[in-house]
TrEMBL record:
A GO molecular function held by the record: protein tyrosine phosphatase activity
Protein EC: 3.1.3.48
Gene: ptpA
Entry annotation: catalytic residues: C9 (nucleophile), R15, D124 (proton donor)
The name this protein goes by in its record: protein-tyrosine-phosphatase
Family: Belongs to the low molecular weight phosphotyrosine protein phosphatase family.
Keywords: Hydrolase, Protein phosphatase
Length: 160
């Protein structure tokens, strides 16, 4: 069975799908047995594609972009090995949903994997322009090496 990682933001149309596609390519290039997806804490965008600015940013940098938004459900904790929140609000929401201490420990903040990060939140680019989406991509990319290191450290034998 593959190691499973999910990214969670608010509506699952901007930050988390961008992180999903970026990490998916990196784990594929590293030949790691990791499944990556994403969801949102809210359900108002369920069934929608990623925001067109997310899609454009991903495509400009050579990433795939196919996506359908979904809402994170508390019963999904048993599906994932690692649940990555994009900001501290998502982090608190996810930890409060966790059914037990073990599941709470699965929840981490993306920027904690970037040792040079100047904060823990990936800002929501929804109400801004292209520069905000590029900043989000830059912050996700900066966290990927540390995230890959964490994944490798926790991959059981035979899943690499």
């Amino acid at each position: 069975m593959s190691y499973r990682v999910t990214f969670v933001c608010t509506g699952n149309i901007c930050r988390s799908p961008m992180a999903e596609h970026i990490l998916r390519r990196h784990v594929s290039e590293a030949n790691l047995d990791v499944l990556v997806d994403s969801s949102g804490t809210g359900g108002w965008h369920v069934g929608d594609p990623a925001d067109k600015r997310t899609v454009a940013t991903l495509r400009r940098h050579g990433y795939t972009s196919k996506h359908t938004a979904q809402q994170f459900r508390p019963l999904w904790f048993n599906r994932y090995d690692l649940i990555i929140a994009l900001d501290q609000g998502h982090y608190r929401d996810l930890r409060s949903m966790a059914p037990n201490p073990e599941d709470r420990e699965k929840v981490r903040l993306l920027r904690e994997f970037d040792t040079a990060a100047d904060g823990l939140d990936v800002p929501d680019p929804y109400y801004g322009g292209r520069a905000g989406f590029e900043l989000v991509r830059d912050q996700i990319e900066a966290a990927v090496p540390g995230l890959l290191e964490e994944i490798r450290k926790n991959l059981p034998a035979g899943r690499v």
